[in-house]
Design brief:
Elements lengths: L3 H22 L17 H11 L5 H25 L6 H19 L5 H18 L4 H8 L14 H25 L15 H27 L11 H10 L4 H11 L10 H28 L2
C-alpha cells in the first residue's frame, strides 16, 4: 500500500511529459523519437535540491521523492530497453534467459550470498549487451534476485550490505563520471529563440509542466479513490514541490536524448540538450521555492 502513491506519481510523471512532447512533434517522425527524453528524473540532483531546502523537510517526503524517482527511472530503463534497441540477437537473448534461470534456481534454493549473483549478473550484462537490448536492464534484473530480507543471524540483508559497499563508488566516482560524460553540452550557435523549436520546447514543457501535472494528477486520483493517503507530516504543497523536482531530468534526460537521436537524429542531438537544461533548471528553481514555502508554512 505504501508503494501505491509513488507508483501512481511515477506513471503520471512519465505519461504526461511524453504526451506533451509527442503533441508538439507529431508531424516529424525523427523528432518523435525523443518522446522519452522528458520522462526521466535525475535522482541525485532532485534529492540535492530537496536537501538544500533544509532539515525541516519531512522524512516521509524524502522517502516519497526517492521512491518515486527510482520507479520513474526504472520505467525509463524499460523504455530504453524496449524502444532504443536495434538488431536483436536471439542467441544472446537465449543465453541471458539461461542466466536468469540459474539465478532463479539459486533464489529458490535459498542462496543468500551475493557473490554468485554478482558473477551471474556480470554474465547477464554481457548477454544483454550482445543481444542489442540496452545493458542497464541487466543490473535491474540482477538486483531483484539478491535477498533484501534480514535474518536473526544476519540483521543486515545481503542487498543492504551490497548497497553499503557500492555507495562510495557510486557517489564519488560512477555518478560524477556519468554526469561529466553526459553533460558535455556545446551551446555555440544556439540562441534563446532556439528553445521555441518543437524538440527543445517539447522537452522543456514536458519537464517543467508535464512532470508536476502528471505526478499531482495521479497522486491526487490515488488519494481521492482511497488507494493511498498522504504520508505523515506531508501537505499538498509539499507534494507539489516534489512534483516540480521530478522535472529535474538533467543527466538522465541527456542520456536518453543521446540514445534517441543517435541514429538519424543528428540535427536534434544538440538542441534537445537546450530543452533539458532549461526545463531541468526551471524545475529545480520552482521546486526549491515551493518547498521553502511549504516548510515555512508547516513550521508556523
Amino acid at each position: 500500500r505504501q508503494l501505491v502513491l509513488p507508483t501512481a506519481g511515477a506513471i503520471g510523471g512519465v505519461a504526461i511529459p511524453a504526451a506533451i512532447y509527442a503533441a508538439l512533434n507529431w508531424q516529424d517522425p525523427v523528432a518523435l523519437k525523443g518522446w522519452a527524453v522528458p520522462t526521466a528524473t535525475d535522482i541525485a540532483f532532485a534529492l540535492g535540491v530537496l536537501a538544500a531546502v533544509g532539515s525541516r523537510v519531512p522524512v516521509a517526503l524524502k522517502v516519497f521523492l526517492m521512491t518515486l524517482a527510482i520507479l520513474d527511472d526504472l520505467i525509463a530503463i524499460v523504455i530504453i530497453a524496449l524502444v532504443y534497441t536495434s538488431g536483436l540477437s536471439v542467441t544472446s537473448l537465449a543465453a541471458g534467459a539461461a542466466v536468469l534461470a540459474l539465478m532463479t534456481i539459486l533464489k529458490l534454493c535459498g542462496i543468500r550470498t551475493t557473490t554468485p549473483y554478482i558473477m551471474l549478473g556480470a554474465a547477464l550484462w554481457v548477454c544483454v549487451l550482445k543481444s542489442g537490448v540496452h545493458a542497464t536492464l541487466a543490473g535491474v534484473a540482477t538486483a531483484f534476485f539478491i535477498s533484501a530480507a534480514p535474518t536473526a543471524e544476519h540483521p543486515e540483508s545481503p542487498l543492504k550490505a551490497l548497497l553499503d559497499d557500492l555507495h562510495p563508488w557510486v557517489a564519488f566516482f560512477i555518478l560524477p563520471m556519468f554526469a561529466f560524460v553526459n553533460a558535455g553540452i556545446a551551446l555555440e550557435g544556439l540562441k534563446l529563440s532556439s528553445l521555441l523549436d518543437p524538440v527543445p520546447l517539447g522537452i522543456a514543457l514536458g519537464l517543467l509542466l508535464g512532470k508536476p501535472i502528471g505526478v499531482m494528477a495521479c497522486v491526487g486520483l490515488a488519494i481521492v479513490t482511497g488507494l493511498a493517503r498522504l504520508p505523515q507530516g506531508v501537505t499538498w504543497l509539499h507534494l507539489f514541490g516534489v512534483a516540480l523536482l521530478c522535472g529535474v531530468g538533467f543527466t538522465m534526460s541527456l542520456f536518453v536524448g543521446g540514445l534517441a537521436f543517435a541514429e538519424g537524429g543528428a540535427g536534434y542531438a544538440r538542441i534537445d540538450r537546450l530543452g533539458v537544461l532549461v526545463g531541468s533548471g526551471l524545475s529545480a528553481v520552482a521546486g526549491f521555492a515551493v518547498l521553502r514555502l511549504a516548510v515555512g508554512r508547516s513550521s508556523t
